[in-house]
Amino acid sequence: MATSTWDFKKLIVAYAGQTLSGFAGDISIDPDGGEDIATKTVGSDGSETVVVFHNNTSGGVTMALMASSSSNDILSALAAAKTVGPILIRDTNGRTVLEAPAAWVARRPVVAYGAEMSEREWRIDYSDAKFVIGGLAQVS
C-alpha cells in the first residue's frame, strides 16, 4: 500500500515577488474562473453535437491569513499600488503547481474585531495561467 504525507509548510505561495505566510486556514484555487472548460450543444433532432473548448486560462485564489500576519501589510500595499505581478503556488509535497505571469488583488478582506482572533480572507485573480493539478508524492 502506498503512503503519502501532507505538510502545509511545504506549500509555497508567492505573489509579485513576495512570499506570503501566516495562513489561518485553507487556500483555494478556482482554476477556471467559474467557467466550464468545455460546453456542448446538441441539435434539436439529436443528430449533431458540438463541443466548444474554452481557452480561458484565468482564475482566482482565495486565501485566509491570520489577522496578525505581516502578509496582510504586503497585500494591502500591493492592492493600493494596483500591482499586477506573477503568482506562484507550488505544493512541494507533490506535483500541483499554479504559475501565472499576471495576478492582482481582486478583493480585500472584510475586517472584523471580536473576542477571538479573526481571519483576513483575500482574493487574488490571475490570467494566462499554467496549472497542473497533481497528486502527492509517495513515501513508500
TrEMBL record:
<protein>
    <recommendedName>
        <fullName>Phage protein</fullName>
    </recommendedName>
</protein>
<dbReference type="InterPro" id="IPR021695">
    <property type="entry name" value="Phage_KPP10_Orf10"/>
</dbReference>
